[in-house]
Amino acid sequence: MPTDPLPDWVPARRRAIGDNVRAARTAAGLTQEGLAGRAGLDRKTVNRLEQGATSPLLDHLLVIADAIGVPLSDLVREE
Questions:
Q1: CA–CA separation, 38 vs 63, rounded Å?
Q2: How far apart are CA 73 and CA 79, in angstroms?
Q3: H or E stretch covering 32
Q4: What is the pTM for the complete model shown?
Q5: CA dist list (Å): 78 to 14, 15, 43, 68, 73
Q6: Residue 24: CA count within 13 A, CB half-sphere
Q7: Tens digit of each residue's pLDDT (9 = 90 or more) over 3-44
Q8: What is the distance between the alpha carbons of residues 37 and 29, in angstroms, rounded to a whole number?
Q9: What is the 8-class DSSP label of residue 52?
Q10: DSSP letter, residue 54
């Protein structure tokens, strides 16, 4: 059964979330590797999320927000 392609706004929003993660990470003075270590994730996972290459799992966003010390809403906010 074929699935319909995602609307264009979905990948754009995913990239915006990645931008928010990157901004919060750099504001916290962390490298991708540093954030990955704090969050218990692989650096490649953090990189893919920041690039908007993959859909972020809610669990990953939760541990990232905790590792950076920001509310989850900061990572998913729309501007």
A1: 9
A2: 12
A3: helix 32-39
A4: 0.90
A5: 11, 11, 25, 19, 9
A6: 24
A7: 778 899 999 999 999 999 999 999 999 999 999 999 999 999
A8: 14
A9: T
A10: S
